[in-house]
């Protein structure tokens, strides 16, 4: 387990020896489309960045399989990334601040959102680019093209991969293998099904039933009967897939893409836009040395990308210069499973998926439970003095669905891991993944996604204020407001049971026992670097070593969490807001695995509450009148503004929305 520490030390030394300006980075930046935007004098530039990675440079050697990638005549490994830049047409109007928005599965609209509008009003440059190489279709998403790794003699690199399938429509006979999500774009080395296994099970932990190799095929049976038309990216089952089962496919894949280049591609593009003057063709940098500060933002999967970007040492360029001055990983609690042979960067937290296996904490922590070294995600950037200022934001669903517990309290869950001085942490209590739509509606419509009403509790207003604070921190040196998150030493974090959390017994609502995604330790084999979530997985499906302890926030008598940057709606609640919900149908029906969060409304009157047996006070018992409710909303909004967790124009809007609502009217 000392491989990562050696790499970190070597990187610190190597960057001093090998850092040469202009060595293997962006060779061409081609703007393919330029268009004017609106009335604010902005332009949108769309194009491709052509880059090279030096496989011998120490800061690149952490990229899995880079040594097996084909090289050009200069000995470099080539890649191509799409990009979008929004900038003032006249660079004189540029603030000097570049804001990078890491796309989530290739999706990033730089013109949609209040914070993006704020950025344009301030004259900031907005950038998005492709970092993910498993997005094959040219469908408008930001994409990355990387080479396939081969052995020196040109033969294919092979290895085991796993795909899992559930909730397919009744009557389905053919499924795309990529639907299993854990395989990325890994094609089978052979279409001979006797060299692979397809199994099914009635529940996640029930008996695994193998299916005969003659009853299924790597094929498409949508147009022709079984065994169909051979297809390396589809699997066909003669009798069809039964949606009451979960299916697992394990096969030997070939020709892995070098997905880890995605980190280098982002590093090189931002380095060029920030420090470069012209590319190798003599074409000028479109930002022409106008950038003095940079910050990056990433939501969910893109947030895990940014965490891994910093952890793996990519926040320095070839000359040892800092890439991002500030980073905001939003609703991200793990590392990204991308720097792995046969990676599936679009994966999540399903069974057997890597992500929480490495150093997922910012400060030094000794992972005695899993036998890993003492370390943290800032080790490499500290060694090179290239650590960014970090504003970490996440909410309730990340505890229940994305295993946020270890990044706060480690793998033993028995002590708080302190935050470094360059990190602020803000927790949004009682929110779904990404937050809800907001509003003050005591009876919102039901959604097919969930057994309980979906959670409307928003994060967007508070997130806007905190992202604004991050930019102010890196540009002006103004510290953000104090961190707000649950801690063990204050009694905020407890075991994930109803008895420990204090969740009330509400008629028709399940208790939160066993509802969160378990924190597993897997055996991925000897070639896997657990600390860096890198390398080669040789065990599929990986054996389960143990289930690790986790904690979640305590709640009050209403079932609402009590610590963090609470929205106005959460502070003046219309019901109980959770980070979990029930699954209404399919293989996981009835289980509480849905990250949409739940809203359990309060009764309107005391009589309604008593009739149903609801222990929570009704709306009229809490607030009495509509005017009193609005008054409490105003107090909550003003308190958030004073603490710098909410901007004044958002506070004014929220108060107006509460006044216009039908609460207690």
Describe the structure.
- The protein is α+β, with helices and mostly antiparallel strands and about 675 residues long.
- It has three domains: about 1-145 and about 255-290, no CATH class; about 160-255, no CATH class; about 345-520 and about 550-665, no CATH class.
- Helix content is about 20%, strand content about 20%.
- Strands 1, 2, 3, 4, 5, 6, 17, 18, 21 and 22 form a ten-stranded mixed β-sheet that branches. Strands 7, 9, 10, 11 and 16 form a five-stranded antiparallel β-sheet that branches.
- Helix 13 (about 625-640) packs antiparallel against helix 14.
- The longest helix has 17 residues, at about 460-475.
- It is globular.
Features of this protein?
single chain, 665 residues, alpha+beta, five-stranded antiparallel sheet, 14 helices
Summarize the structure.
The protein has 665 residues and is of the alpha+beta class. It contains 14 helices and 31 strands.
Give a topology summary.
Elements: H1 3-18, E1 26-37, E2 42-53, E3 77-88, E4 97-102, H2 114-121, E5 125-129, E6 144-145, E7 158-165, E8 174-176, E9 187-188, E10 197-201, E11 209-210, E12 216-217, E13 219-220, E14 229-230, E15 234-237, E16 246-254, H3 261-275, E17 293-299, H4 301-311, E18 326-330, E19 365-366, E20 374-375, H5 379-384, E21 389-395, H6 396-401, H7 405-409, E22 423-428, E23 453-454, H8 460-476, E24 493-494, H9 498-501, E25 519-522, E26 528-529, E27 534-535, E28 544-548, E29 552-553, H10 568-571, E30 575-578, E31 598-601, H11 606-612, H12 619-623, H13 626-642, H14 648-660
Parallel strand pairs: 4-5, 4-17, 17-18, 18-21, 21-22
Antiparallel strand pairs: 1-2, 2-3, 3-5, 3-6, 7-16, 8-15, 9-16, 10-11, 10-16, 12-15, 13-14, 19-20, 23-31, 24-29, 25-28, 26-27, 30-31
């Amino acid at each position: 387990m000392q491989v990562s520490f050696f790499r970190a030390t070597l990187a610190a030394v190597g960057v001093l020896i090998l850092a040469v300006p202009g060595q293997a980075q962006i060779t061409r930046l081609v703007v393919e489309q330029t268009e004017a935007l609106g009335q604010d004098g902005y332009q949108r530039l769309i194009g491709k960045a052509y880059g090279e990675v030096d496989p011998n440079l120490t800061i690149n050697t952490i990229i899995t399989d880079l040594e097996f990638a084909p090289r050009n005549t200069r000995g470099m490994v080539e890649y191509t990334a799409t990009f979008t830049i929004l900038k003032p047409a006249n660079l004189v109007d540029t603030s000097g601040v570049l804001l990078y928005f890491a796309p989530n599965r290739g999706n990033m609209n730089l013109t949609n959102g209040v914070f993006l509008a704020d950025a344009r009003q301030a004259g900031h440059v907005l950038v998005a680019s492709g970092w993910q190489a498993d997005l094959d279709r040219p469908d408008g998403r930001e994409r990355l093209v990387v080479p396939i790794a081969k052995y020196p003699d040109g033969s294919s690199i092979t290895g085991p991969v796993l795909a899992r399938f559930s909730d397919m429509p009744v009557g389905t006979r053919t499924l795309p293998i990529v639907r299993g999500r854990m395989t990325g774009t890994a094609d089978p080395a052979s279409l001979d099904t006797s060299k692979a296994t397809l199994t099914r099970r009635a529940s996640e932990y029930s008996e695994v039933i193998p299916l005969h190799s003659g009853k299924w095929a790597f094929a498409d049976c949508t147009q022709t009967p079984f065994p169909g038309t051979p297809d390396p990216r589809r699997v066909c089952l003669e009798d069809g897939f039964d949606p009451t089962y979960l299916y697992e496919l394990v096969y030997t894949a070939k020709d892995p893409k070098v997905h880890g280049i995605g980190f280098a591609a982002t590093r090189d593009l931002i380095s060029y836009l920030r420090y470069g003057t012209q590319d190798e063709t003599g074409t000028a940098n479109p930002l022409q040395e106008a950038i003095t500060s940079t910050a990056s933002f990433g939501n969910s999967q893109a947030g895990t990308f940014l965490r891994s970007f910093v952890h793996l040492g990519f926040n320095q360029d070839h000359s040892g210069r800092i890439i991002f001055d500030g980073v905001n990983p939003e609703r991200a609690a793990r590392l990204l499973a991308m720097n792995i042979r046969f990676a599936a960067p679009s994966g999540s937290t399903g069974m057997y998926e890597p992500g929480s296996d490495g150093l997922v904490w910012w400060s030094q922590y000794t992972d005695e439970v899993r036998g890993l070294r003492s370390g943290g995600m800032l080790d490499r950037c500290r060694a090179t003095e290239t650590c960014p200022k970090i504003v970490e934001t996440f909410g309730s669903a990340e505890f229940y669905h994305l295993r946020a517990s270890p990044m706060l309290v480690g793998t033993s869950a028995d002590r708080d891991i302190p935050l470094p001085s360059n990190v602020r942490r803000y927790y949004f209590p009682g929110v779904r993944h990404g937050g809800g739509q907001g509003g003050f509606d005591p009876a919102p419509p039901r959604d097919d996604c969930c057994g309980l009403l979906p959670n409307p509790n928003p994060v967007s207003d508070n997130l806007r204020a905190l992202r604004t604070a991050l930019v102010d921190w890196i540009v002006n040196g103004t510290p953000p407001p104090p961190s707000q998150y649950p801690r063990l030493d204050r009694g905020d974090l407890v075991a994930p049971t109803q008895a420990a959390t204090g969740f009330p017994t509400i008629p028709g609502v399940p208790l939160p026992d066993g509802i969160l995604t378990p924190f597993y330790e897997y055996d991925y084999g000897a070639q896997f670097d657990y600390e860096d979530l890198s390398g080669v997985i040789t065990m599929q499906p990986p054996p389960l070593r143990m289930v690790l302890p986790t904690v979640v926030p305590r709640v009050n008598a209403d079932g609402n969490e009590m610590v963090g940057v609470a929205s106005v709606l959460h502070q003046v609640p219309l019901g109980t807001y959770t980070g979990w919900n029930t699954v209404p149908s399919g293989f996981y029906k009835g289980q509480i695995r849905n990250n949409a969060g739940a809203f359990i409304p309060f009764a309107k009157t005391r009589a309604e509450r008593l009739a149903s047996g609801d222990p929570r006070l009704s709306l009229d018992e809490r607030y009495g009148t509509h005017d009193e409710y609005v008054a409490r909303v105003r107090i909550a909004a003003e308190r958030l503004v004073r603490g710098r967790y909410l901007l004044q124009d958002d506070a004014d809007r929220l108060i107006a929305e509460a006044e216009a609502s039908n609460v207690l009217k």
